[in-house]
Amino acid sequence: MTELAARGSSEASWREFELLVAEVVRRSDPLATVEHDQRLRGRSGKLRQIDVLARGKVAGEEILIVVECKDHGRPVGVAEVEAFLGKLLDVAADKGVLFSSSGYTDGAVRRMESTTHPRINAYGYLRPAARERHYEEILDGEFWEPTA
């Protein structure tokens, strides 16, 4: 039995989602360093958990991108966007990306669209009922960007 199976199917599911999102990020820029489940100390002094961390260089400058994976049974709301924005500011991220398996509320989309620095991009992968908890399709680009 795998470690994830021993912990239970719900943890195995969200962990699988995070790992697949990490692979999507890795494939989007093979020169970037992409790490799953990292910890960064924020300006607050608090150690912050990061689902997927991507680092790379643009014009000789180091860029830090924090990716948060939301595998919930409900759409991501404004409160979750605000919490993510706080995390981005605390760890001095250059950009944030939210990836949801259940979509976003209109308010959450408007809040993400209104951020300037760090900018937040959002992507989604909606689980079809017949294929619930199977995410392999995201590796083939079966995801979407929300609009308000």
Describe the structure.
- The N terminus is likely disordered.
- Strand 4, helix 4 and strand 5 form a beta-alpha-beta unit.
- The chain starts with a helix and ends in a 24-residue tail after the last strand.
- 32% of the residues lie in helices and 29% in strands.
- It has one domain: Trna Endonuclease, Chain: A, domain 1, CATH 3.40.1350.
- The chain has 148 residues and is an alpha/beta fold.
- The radius of gyration is 15 Å and the shape is globular.
- The chain has a five-stranded mixed β-sheet with strand order 1-2-3-4-5, with helices on both faces.
Tell me the CATH architecture: 3-Layer(aba) Sandwich
Low-pLDDT ranges? 1-9, 130-137
CATH class value:
Alpha Beta
Largest sheet: 5 strands, mixed
* SSE pattern, N- to C-terminal: HHEEEHEHE
